[in-house]
Write a structure and sequence with these properties.
Low-confidence stretches of chain A: none
Shape of chain A: globular
Strand content of chain A: over 45%
Oligomer: heterodimer
Largest sheet of chain A: 7 strands, mixed
Order of helices and strands of chain A: EEEEEEEEEEE
Mean pLDDT of chain A: 94
Largest interface: A-B, 28 and 28 residues
Strand content of chain B: over 45%
Distance between the termini of chain A: 30 Å
Helix content of chain A: under 10%
Order of helices and strands of chain B: EEEEEEEEEEE
Mean pLDDT of chain B: 94
Structural class of chain B: mainly beta
Largest sheet of chain B: 6 strands, mixed
Shape of chain B: globular
Number of strands of chain B: 11
Number of helices of chain A: 0
Number of strands of chain A: 11
Radius of gyration of chain B: 14 Å
Chain lengths: ~110, ~110
């Protein structure tokens, strides 16, 4: 069991739907991350939050909207996604946003119809 | 451009047959080299961080080493439960966020 919890585990949505992915950690970490991982590929960084502020956006399309309501929670709001956005979305956290190791959740498997 | 290359892409070992996985990196401003294990359908599980050339870390049958250009993950007397994809990543964390550049991984299968 990981200490980073992601919900839901699986999500199927149409291209016109709006949905949200949720991530929670209770390790007192102050940096949180969203990654996208396609099959047989390594994770690709999307966003970094440091002390609840967005610090890195890797030129992600605006149909992905991150939110960090508090130091334990991270959301990813999805709207008008494309079929190529189908992937495993991983959340991670680290003690801070320096060179500390990141701890990953088990992800949300997203399928866009 | 930062780059991390892992070899081999896939490796089949017999139980007890030791081997090494390679991770070559060119990451500007490297602040840490990270090793992860990923099982199918799961997120990466953190194994080791190496911060400076010459550093070594061990955990059970795994030992990670670091030079100025590459890192090795040595697996001694592997068991079937060591089967997984092993990822290495270079980190450039400097306050704004620890950006990890991942290699494409080595898929390890250990057979009885």
């Amino acid at each position: 069991d990981t200490e980073v919890t992601q919900t839901p585990k699986h999500l199927v949505m149409g291209m016109t739907n709006k949905k949200s992915l949720k991530c929670e950690q209770h390790m007192g970490h102050r940096a949180m991350y969203w990654y996208k991982q396609k099959a047989k590929k390594p994770p690709e960084l999307m966003f970094v939050y440091s002390y609840e502020k967005l610090s890195i956006n890797e030129s992600v399309p605006s149909r992905f909207s991150p939110e960090c309501p508090n130091s334990s929670l991270l959301n990813l709001h999805l709207h008008a996604l494309q079929p190529e956005d189908s992937a495993l979305y991983l959340c991670a956290s680290s003690q801070d946003a320096s060179n500390q190791p990141q701890h990953f959740g088990d992800g949300t498997r997203l399928s866009i119809l | 451009e930062d780059q991390v290359t892992q070899s081999p892409e896939a490796l089949r070992l017999q139980e007890g047959e030791s081997s090494s996985l390679n991770c070559s990196y060119t990451v500007s401003g490297l602040r840490g080299l990270f090793w992860y294990r990923q099982d199918p359908g799961k997120g990466p599980e953190f194994l080791f961080t190496l911060y400076s050339a010459g550093e070594e870390k061990e955990k059970e049958r795994l030992k990670a080493t670091l030079t100025k250009k590459e890192s090795f993950l040595h697996i001694t007397a592997p068991k079937p439960e060591d089967s997984a994809t092993y990822l290495c990543a270079g980190g450039t964390g400097a306050g704004g966020g620890n950006k990890l550049t991942f290699g494409t991984g080595t898929q390890l299968k250990v057979e009885l």
